[in-house]
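We modelled the chain as a single entity of 235 amino acids. Its sequence is:
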Amino acid sequence: MEAWILILLFSSCFLGGMAVFLFKNDNKQQLKLILSFSGAYLFAITILHLIPEVYHDGSHSIGMFVLGGFIFQIILEQFSQGIEHGHIHKHPHESLAFPYGIMISLCLHAFLEGMPLVRDPHHQLVYGIGLHHIPAAFALGSVLLQSRVNKNTIIFLLAVFALMTPLGYLFSYELSSGAIADLTAYFDRIMAIVIGIFLHISTTILFESSVDHHFNLKKSIAVIAGIATALLLGL
């Protein structure tokens, strides 16, 4: 376990959320490009590394857990409204009640995303998840602002959200080392669930990356760059 991974995961998410106080207009083109890059990167890493590994180490029924993770993410999005994709589906002038469902589902999602990092010897996923959380945290901060949550509370909630992935990584590390002995045998199944979540998140990002599912040039380049980066880091 390396401390810099925890720092990177926390800071990228927290600073991405704090940026909402600096960029309050609708020009979020750079965040959309980051989202497209990270979605393609996560998809490539999942296909190239996570899926082969979990099928190699797990039983033949492991696919059921991958499918379960995919469905679980669909359920989570009924509460999170797709903020983990970096999208805000509320009208900017609409005042909202405090988004308990969004906050809880996002924290659970972020916790689970930290778990595969223990099987990431070359830190490929660390960078992808760090990038992925920048627009997600920005979207969360925007929703909290629309909900008329005061600034100090928003900062606290963003810090809580930013802690979830490092905590997931720590939990997975303890689990894989046998410190949580009763759950060690289920590690591959837990990983398969997370893979299902990654597949849903990454493919949804790619499909939602532009209107009517047509990529513009900049987003096409971002997607290709994300896949190419995953390939290069895997060599």
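As a brief sanity check on the tokenised model: The first helix runs from residue 3 to 18. DSSP finds eight helices and no strands in the chain.
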